[in-house]
Amino acid sequence: MATSSSTFTRDVSPDMFEDTNSTTNEDGNDRTWRGCTMNDIYHNTGPFDWDPEPIYPSNDHQVLFMMPLPEKGPPKPRCTSESYCWNPDYVRMPFAKQNLYPVSNGETTVLKNRWTLIKEALSQPIYSSNDLQQRIFAYNNKYEDRWQFHTLHHFFNNVLDEDENEYFFENIMPNIVKLALQLPELLPSSIPLLKKNKTHAISLTQLQIASLLANAFLCTFPRRNTNKPQSEFGSYPLINFNRFFQATEKRVHSNCSKLQCILNYFRRVTTNPPDGVVTFQRRYLNQFELPQWRKADQPLSSLRIHIDNKGTIEDGLGLLQVDFANKYIGGGVLGSGCVQEEIRFAVCPELIVSCLFTEELDPTEALTIIGVEQYNTWTGYGDTFTWTGNYKDTTPRDIFRRRKCYLVAIDATRFCRPTEQYNISRILRELNKAYVGYYSPTQNKPIPAVATGNWGCGAFRGDPYLKSLLQIMACRLAGRDIVYYTFGNTSLRDDLYSLFTALTENNITIGTLYNYFIQFSESKLPGSSLYTFILQNINNTFTPPDTKSLTHYFSKKRRKVNSPPKDPRIKTKNGVENIVVDEIFDSVVLNNELSSSQTSSTSHTEDGNVEMNCNLIPSSSEDSILLDKVKELENQDVNFKTNSDISTSSSSIGESVLLAKLQELERNEMKVDASSSSTKIGACDTNKMDVDIKFEDGSNKKKAS
Questions:
Q1: Around Cβ 142, how many Cβ atoms within 10 Å?
Q2: Which residue of the set 27, 30, 163, 342 is catalytic?
Q3: Catalytic: 323?
Q4: Annotated catalytic, 634?
Q5: Taking the model in full, what pTM does it have?
Q6: Which of 474, 655, 660, 698 counts the highest number of beta carbons within 10 A?
Q7: Pick the catalytic residue: 53, 323, 411, 582?
Q8: What is the pLDDT of residues 689-703, one digit of tens each?
């Protein structure tokens, strides 16, 4: 059943976490959501009642601890008979015997094992941030004149008081050093890099992750102090904390709050070592595994959707929570960044270890993470981000000791020009990216819904009205329901639900909706009209804004009609000159019925020509096809010229006839000159025009219509 047309309003998106007043339902109770209930999303069970993805050691899943797990205590590290791998396919560990560093000794320079230098430097007491800096320089001395740890010093000199400083350097700092130096015992096996174009996974214990992060904090990882393109790890995120410590006064408050999150994490894991497990999987789909969106015949009606203007993605307990990622995982968490991804990594610092082994994400790749724990609470966003205290995570664990926290990192496209995002090639890229992230190999049993929001709609300049629909389509094909948080935008909540209702009530399929995107992409209409465009296509009442239709063909290259600028035979209405452009193609029969849906106008240019701007509102899907065909001729040199009288009228053109002639014009690359004479137009009178059609071969043919 067709749904009546409605108008969608577009509000300026508020701050991502800013709440607005909630709406009230018919019962007078506040209800901030639309769609199905969260109980429906959870299939009438608990939020954590999903079967876990198993951990099986294989060539594509490196498990760095012993299986099966012990009943109590941290899992034991996995030892192998293989020698430690020092090659481009594995993380280069700081304790490797091949890790050599040049040390100047007077007039000579010798190579020493860097792990020996690290242990010597860190064995000395550290009483202040200046001492910490000097210890780090002992095994990074070539950066001594370049690294200035502004954030580190500001934090300890201005944020913490004297007692807090003393407690940290007497109690926490020695434990961080001890944890870092335990790395060879905790991780005797090599860590493979999660490289491009392959689906593979790594499972680590939380204690192994803590030791890796302690080494990152102390800047011990070799060849990871730069990400210049020509460097070995130029396609990987930074992992050593030197860049974070160097952050300047920009976002000094939020950077210090991120540092508080990390130090609170170290306080926790050094006083009470965790015994859980975390799995990181890089997921890749090749072009043959991606959906054929145009042909997808799955209807949207079976999808459960919950849209809420309050809450955040982290509130989606037990769901697949979306990280609005940078293609370099973690984004600016170890820099000055402090938006959605960086905040999530700061409050759950175990996520930062993914920067160590995850190569930049390609367009059909995503990173899924199972089992991370939250250690911190916070308020604010961006410059206002503030650490508010310690957090005790009570999320239950699965049989592999992973917290039932499921995260997927997908990177959106950054648009320098926001209008580019409506190009079908850009739409296809975002659809595939979301599908790869939401895809699950699990079949024939319930899987968690997706908890998401305005993906890529901040600094990347995406349109939440578009991105919400793309994620809905990806969820439907991936077999997941969706919980969408609009972050305070009630207009988006209501408009999205209204459109989704129209799509489901009319049994619109994924393929049909994708074809609507193709048409919208070709129409060059403003992005703000997307929902109206889709709804009118559903109802077969497509009426582009400002009654632009056939004349969209003329919008970029307006056709000039050679006529005197003040010809008295051009009738005017309210001082605006109007002109009717009848069919000027060979053997075209005009439809003479008057239609109020057709309008035309002219305006004079500086050179005295009349600039033609005709309008015809299509009333069927055939009209949309006509407009698409007209657009294909947009770049051809087609000039319409009249050399005599012009009269005004309203008339509708035979679209199918015009389409046929457009196709003929495309084949013959015609140039048209029109000489017209007119008769008086009554209620149903017609224009008569002699048309002189000149072909590229020089021949001509004259017809009167």
A1: 11
A2: 342
A3: yes
A4: no
A5: 0.75
A6: 474
A7: 323
A8: 333 434 444 444 443
